[in-house]
Amino acid sequence: MAEAVETPEVAVEAKKGGSNILLIIVVVMLFLILAGGAAAAYFMLNEDTEVLDDAQQAKQTQVVAAAKQTSTTRSTDYSQIGPMYPMDQFIVNLYNEGSSRYLKSTINFELSVAELSVEMDTKKPLIRDIVIKTLSAKTYEEISTIRGKENLKDELVSKINQVLTDGQINNVFFTDFVIQ
Q: Using CA atoms, how far apart are residues 81 and 143, in angstroms rounded to an integer?
């Protein structure tokens, strides 16, 4: 009878089949390691999973409530707009590392009383300084959205009202707002 003789070609084919299985196992293991690392990084770096103690939660609630109150105190009924105080144009560098972005803006302030315009005239350099510092501390990402502009308005109203004594600013209107 004929004996089965193993030729070198048959031995090479058997080894190739074994190396394919080994390659598949290595690829699957690498995939599992990468998926596990990504999952670990997600859970470790996710800020939403932080546990806040009662004091931090109370402070966060107060900040949110104050922001809501500030945005609702600005007049949204445009039929009852108070006296307006126009400012000269502002051109500032936005806060941005690596590249230069500029903001050109013209602002009008809605005053609570007309008599406040006299104080605004005398404190105009101080008010311009507050506006320039506030605008130049912002990044493009912070003020490029509608919500960002609303937050900027709230911040300007709050900061300028701190230096006024004869009345307050009710609202800020951007009549020109160009970012380049």
A: 24
